[in-house]
Protein backbone atom coordinates (compact mmCIF):
# COMPACT_ATOMS: atom_id res chain seq x y z
CA UNK A 1 0.00 0.00 0.00
CA UNK A 2 1.27 3.46 -0.87
CA UNK A 3 0.69 6.39 1.50
CA UNK A 4 1.45 10.00 0.65
CA UNK A 5 2.53 12.40 3.38
CA UNK A 6 4.74 15.44 3.79
CA UNK A 7 7.79 14.89 5.99
CA UNK A 8 8.11 17.75 8.48
CA UNK A 9 10.89 16.75 10.82
CA UNK A 10 13.89 14.62 11.58
CA UNK A 11 13.63 10.97 12.58
CA UNK A 12 13.67 10.24 16.31
CA UNK A 13 14.69 6.72 17.30
CA UNK A 14 12.98 5.17 20.35
CA UNK A 15 11.29 8.35 21.61
CA UNK A 16 10.73 8.68 25.35
CA UNK A 17 8.11 11.25 26.46
CA UNK A 18 8.90 13.30 23.35
CA UNK A 19 6.35 15.69 21.80
CA UNK A 20 8.03 15.26 18.38
CA UNK A 21 8.47 18.99 17.83
CA UNK A 22 4.85 19.62 18.92
CA UNK A 23 3.66 17.80 15.79
CA UNK A 24 -0.03 17.06 15.30
CA UNK A 25 0.58 14.07 13.02
CA UNK A 26 3.40 11.59 13.65
CA UNK A 27 4.44 8.62 11.51
CA UNK A 28 5.71 5.67 13.57
CA UNK A 29 7.61 2.78 11.97
CA UNK A 30 8.43 -0.23 14.13
CA UNK A 31 12.02 -1.48 14.27
CA UNK A 32 10.78 -4.42 16.37
CA UNK A 33 7.55 -5.53 18.03
CA UNK A 34 6.53 -2.49 20.09
CA UNK A 35 3.82 -0.41 21.67
CA UNK A 36 3.61 3.33 21.01
CA UNK A 37 2.16 5.17 24.00
CA UNK A 38 0.62 8.64 23.70
CA UNK A 39 0.43 10.59 26.97
CA UNK A 40 -0.64 13.99 28.28
CA UNK A 41 1.14 15.61 31.19
CA UNK A 42 -0.74 13.39 33.64
CA UNK A 43 -2.24 10.33 31.91
CA UNK A 44 -2.07 7.86 29.04
CA UNK A 45 -4.25 8.93 26.10
CA UNK A 46 -3.81 5.81 23.97
CA UNK A 47 -1.57 2.93 23.01
CA UNK A 48 -0.93 1.49 19.55
CA UNK A 49 0.59 -1.97 19.14
CA UNK A 50 2.90 -2.58 16.18
CA UNK A 51 3.32 -6.31 15.64
CA UNK A 52 6.63 -6.48 13.77
CA UNK A 53 9.47 -4.48 12.27
CA UNK A 54 8.20 -2.48 9.31
CA UNK A 55 4.67 -2.02 10.64
CA UNK A 56 3.68 1.63 10.56
CA UNK A 57 0.94 3.98 11.65
CA UNK A 58 0.28 7.72 11.50
CA UNK A 59 -0.98 9.03 14.84
CA UNK A 60 -2.93 12.25 15.28
CA UNK A 61 -2.19 13.87 18.64
CA UNK A 62 -2.40 17.19 20.47
CA UNK A 63 0.83 19.23 20.12
CA UNK A 64 1.53 18.91 23.86
CA UNK A 65 1.01 15.11 23.93
CA UNK A 66 4.16 12.98 24.04
CA UNK A 67 5.11 9.64 22.47
CA UNK A 68 7.10 6.81 23.98
CA UNK A 69 8.23 3.66 22.17
CA UNK A 70 11.23 1.43 22.78
CA UNK A 71 11.17 -0.03 19.26
CA UNK A 72 10.21 2.60 16.70
CA UNK A 73 11.46 5.45 14.57
CA UNK A 74 9.10 8.43 14.42
CA UNK A 75 8.88 11.77 12.64
CA UNK A 76 6.41 14.61 12.15
CA UNK A 77 4.30 14.47 9.00
CA UNK A 78 1.55 16.45 7.34
CA UNK A 79 -1.20 15.71 4.91
CA UNK A 80 -0.77 16.62 1.23
CA UNK A 81 -4.05 18.50 1.66
CA UNK A 82 -2.75 20.69 4.51
Write a short abstract of this structure.
With 82 residues, this protein is mainly beta. The protein has no helices and eight strands.
Contiguous uncertain segments of 5+ residues: none
Order of helices and strands: EEEEEEEE
The N- to C-terminal Cα distance equals 21 Å
Shape: globular
Q: Beta fraction of the residues?
A: over 45%
Whole-number total of structural domains: 1
Mean pLDDT: 93
Main structural class: mainly beta
How large, in whole angstroms, is the Cα Rg? Answer: 12 Å
Helix content: under 10%
The largest β sheet comes out as: 5 strands, antiparallel
Q: In CATH, what is the class?
A: Mainly Beta
Number of strands: 8
User: What is the level-2 CATH architecture name?
Assistant: Sandwich
As for the CATH topology, it is Jelly Rolls
Number of helices, where a helix is a run of at least 4 consecutive DSSP H or I residues:
0
